[in-house]
């Protein structure tokens, strides 16, 4: 038994040995799953050296890991996972004049580029995971990206690396002249022996290596160890200007040779500012393969491909569906051709030539050009490819197995013809996308790895494709690496002799197998330790769910849509909302990915008899704020908020409902009783003694202020309201008096009624009950289902497109569109869907009426006002903040700035709870609080969410108004 307590006492970082962390780190973005022994978060080089020594002492392997987005199982294994992303993520030095930067391995690529952008520089290789991948991982995989046509791979930009060798030696790998290399070879150290072995190996096998490595014209090649790259240095080629540098070998070695602690990277000037993207719509894949060669003649900076599968799946993703603006018809594939020059005239001139050439050859039927900020939307759709593919419903998915093969571009059409014939023979379908300009297409056959026959095909496809790649002098891996997926096919590709040299390379650097064993060489069978197992008799598949997951083909399939690509690790610096708790803490256990992996693992391999009482699942779900961002921002449509609610209800079924959850879920009933004597309710809540007792019962933070009831309810008030506008009405509105507006934010509801009345609308509050939002948030789905069914029955015959149901509190009205259809049961599902289409958020209704000319700017003041707007999480995910901005911009001199904030951190009861208070405030401090504090008192702060407004008040001391209050204040006649 290994005592990891010894390691914990030796280092300043963290050592985690619990089952939850083992599960979270048992997978990456590949098809593999294997439990690590433990997880370490080192803080510095001394911690790394201590980990190396500990691994040697206990004869275990050490697995370096950063963002964990690898696709070939590089960071999966039964060893000690060392995650550098949490602490070893500092930028150490930037040299603008010499165009280089020194970083620790955990620095995120986009964060680096954001830092040096003002200097007119950036790091050239750009992966699709650039907003979360780390530089250490990019070196490990020799990452390339969409613009490798111009910028090459990470290897081309790695100048120096400070590493820890397997015996604990700290060494600097850098460019050297021949005399320095010979000097190193004479040193009686591990470093010296490495130099000696490498030089002697290359001198004795030069011709063999060159003969068996891929076509030199192929720029993307990352199979095996890049020993051939060292032959092009001036040590072996006197005509070369390139010095001998072991960094060439380190890049692409997947952490198997040494542990990187610091990197010196080359920076390049930012590309020309004038850009355009031509989105060539192709009728067939063959058109795209040939059209790529035509476009390449005009020297674009990138050409990428998306096939019909990805385009279809993007329709079902809330975020990416908005990025389909350039698509016309039903193309079999789209070529994204990017141009960058110094002027628009140059760009358009080249674009004209490309389009003319393609039309002349009959390639393509639509050639839209995209400029400016819309270019990033096109690339966002392209980068979402892998995640979108994982969102394919059911167990059969486009799998990563041959997704990284590359051949020289001119060989690509012939290779694709052979590949297509192989698929036809095997009866398989495939997805095609990515880096067509450099001959690397991500090819993903659709397989169900829970099925025994498809698992056989998984191996067969890999073997047959490897032979095709060899035939076309290509590489099995262009950028994703070998890991444990492709390692066993390296002998087939390179021959036993060269493969033997690669094994010798591993042995010379790491004789005791300390670093990432069984990757690249000596790998286990590629179809072992797969994430998914042949289907067993699982309780989770026999359990009736409260939400309807039939669209995803079951709850488990919905959970398994998470492929591990790590989009949920994106920093708040790049906008969006997912995932608030990770953004605040940097902990992998707080990611959407970790929650999905934990659910999958413990539901398919339960540690308890009851299954739904497992503490690990409860622990990982506890920090989910139910913001709904993953539903829209995760390309795979992983809706953790829904999974959390589903699991909690099953937990209550077997373990009972805790008092806190019961009280929060029954908030409306408590408020209904309190509203009889609101003065008494408020006195109890306001009193330090009784209010303190109530907070302790609810386990709320003492720093929080409990909300008060208004002196009347909105429903009661409207019954006594006399319409001010006695003239002809322009329309009728059914107002949803949600549980917050009806009891606490009554004045906002009153202003909504008066505002609409003054604008000529008849406002009616129809008979309905609360939304069920508090019950859903606490996972009390039995209660929520009753509420949802009752509301659908009460409203389905009176709500219509002409007479919509309009809501003030985003989370409540959006329940009709999001949760209700999948909660009410099969017999009411169609009615719920139809009802939901006519349930509008306040801003959606106003914008609709503004665009129809029924609400006009002249009805409002022309006095100036600057407004700072914070959108509600559910509004951002399920609808949009844009209608609120447009609505508030209606008064001619109102200027609206939308805060690029994610979740405010309150998230209903989440931020009130004592155990979440600190995390809640950390989330607010990232963007929201500084933005609010940074403006003067003349700036109007606006936020539609009741929780958001309370959080802003608690965090900044400033009062935020609901957009309805702001627009009401702008009315000329009140």
The overall pLDDT average reads 95
Q: In terms of structural class, how would the helical and strand content be classed?
A: alpha/beta
**Treating each run of at least 4 consecutive H or I residues as one helix, how many helices?**
44
Tally of extended strands? 25
Summarize the main sheet: 7 strands, antiparallel
Low-pLDDT runs: none
Between the first and last Cα atoms, what is the distance in angstroms? Answer: 77 Å
Percent range for helical residues? Answer: 40-55%
Proportion of residues in β-strands: 5-15%
Shape assignment: globular
Cα-atom radius of gyration: 30 Å
Question: What's the arrangement of strands in the largest beta sheet?
Answer: 15-12-14-13-17-18-16
Structure in words:
41% of the residues lie in helices and 12% in strands. The protein has 974 residues and is an alpha/beta fold. The protein has a 7-stranded antiparallel beta sheet with strand order 15-12-14-13-17-18-16. It has a 5-stranded antiparallel beta sheet with strand order 5-6-10-8-9. A 4-stranded mixed beta sheet has the order 1-2-4-3, covered by helices on one side. Helix 33 crosses helix 44 and helix 38 (842-851) crosses helix 40. The chain is globular and about 95 Å long.
